[in-house]
């Protein structure tokens, strides 16, 4: 039987009265919408000691919530910066390999460590120009020299920075050996945290190449040419090849982590700066989830 326990927390940092299901998800980002709603509907939530069973029940800052639920999975503990995260340190750029399960930067909920804060403690003031989802591992770049910030700002906005990801996805699917996925994407109505392919959304383009396939799983390289939220995760789902371990767009229990890794980032030659490439090796918790037939291919990427 799954272990049950009571989770207690005080509601903080809301802009105003908020539905209880949303407040719970802000406190526990790993809980899915359906799971939270099922818990509330089953009368497993209390507000200030009173049982609540409607997800539309409004809570406010200072309210105390108790939730009877499964014991949550332990998050990655990162009380201090780990030197092995450093991919490379130049005079103006620091490239780090972010572990899966660590936030890129603080959220308004707070509480969890984030790599921006930890990098600041380690190196002093740094600027983060891009982010990765909590569940995605891989290379991130930070700057220390303000002179490079304009160059990077222009390059990111112009889309001249190349990002390469590696993912393990479901197979069979609709991918060819190489190809391009070109769609439009928008938010799911009333859900800012979930995206979908939509004819009325913003243009989204992903290039891909299949590395190998084994045991109903496919290893692919992905190059997003646009930067839509959850673009790679949505595009893989759209092609019926959801990324394994994806709690929003696939099946979370298909892997112990989201099998998406930011493998390489290449900065363009421009404004007197040379082209530079930073590569984050695939972490062991990624490689260990691969079929044996794909591990050698992955290590040679």
Summarize the structure.
By secondary structure, the chain is α+β, with helices and mostly antiparallel strands.
Description:
- This protein has two domains: about 5-70, RNA-binding S4 domain (Structural Genomics Hypothetical 15.5 Kd Protein In mrcA-pckA Intergenic Region, Chain A, Roll); about 85-300, Pseudouridine synthase (2-Layer Sandwich).
- The protein is globular and about 60 Å long.
- β14 (about 200-215) and β15 form a beta hairpin.
- The strands form three sheets. Strands 7, 8, 9, 10, 11, 12, 13, 14, 15, 16 and 17 form an eleven-stranded mixed sheet that branches.
- α1 (about 20-25) crosses α2 (about 35-40).
- It starts with a strand and ends with a helix.
- About 20% of the residues lie in helices and about 35% in strands.
- It has seven helices and 17 strands.
- The protein has helices spanning about 20-25, 35-40, 115-125, 150-160, 230-240, 285, 290-300, and strands spanning about 5-10, 20, 45, 50, 60, 65-70, 85-90, 95-100, 125-130, 135-145, 160-170, 180-190, 190-195, 200-215, 215-225, 260-265, 275-280.
């Amino acid at each position: 039987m799954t272990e049950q326990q009571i989770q207690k927390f005080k509601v903080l940092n809301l802009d105003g009265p908020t539905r209880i299901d949303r407040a719970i998800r802000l406190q526990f980002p790993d809980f899915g919408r359906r799971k939270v709603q099922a818990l509330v509907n089953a009368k497993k939530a209390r507000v200030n000691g009173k049982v609540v069973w409607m997800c539309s029940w409004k809570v406010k800052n200072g309210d105390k919530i108790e939730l009877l639920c499964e014991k949550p999975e332990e998050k990655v503990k990162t009380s201090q910066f780990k030197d092995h995260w450093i991919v490379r340190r130049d005079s103006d750029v620091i490239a780090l390999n972010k572990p899966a399960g660590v936030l890129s930067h603080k959220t308004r909920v707070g509480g969890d460590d984030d790599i921006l804060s930890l990098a600041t403690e380690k190196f002093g003031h740094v600027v983060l120009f891009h982010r990765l989802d909590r569940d995605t591992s891989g290379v991130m770049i930070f700057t220390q020299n303000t002179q490079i910030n304009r160059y990077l700002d222009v390059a990111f906005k112009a889309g001249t920075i190349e990002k390469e990801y590696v993912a393990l996805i479901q197979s069979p699917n609709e991918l060819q050996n190489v190809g391009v996925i070109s769609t439009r994407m928008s938010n799911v109505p009333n859900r800012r945290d979930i995206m979908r392919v939509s004819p009325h959304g913003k243009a989204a383009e992903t290039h891909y190449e299949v590395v190998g396939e084994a045991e109903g799983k496919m290893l692919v390289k992905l190059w997003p040419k646009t930067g839509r939220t959850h673009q790679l995760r949505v595009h893989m789902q759209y092609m019926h090849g959801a990324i394994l371990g994806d709690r929003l767009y696939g099946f979370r229990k298909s892997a112990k982590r989201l099998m998406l890794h930011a493998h390489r980032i290449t900065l363009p030659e421009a404004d007197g700066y040379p082209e530079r490439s930073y590569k984050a090796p695939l972490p062991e918790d990624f490689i260990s989830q691969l079929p044996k037939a794909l591990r050698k291919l992955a290590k040679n990427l």
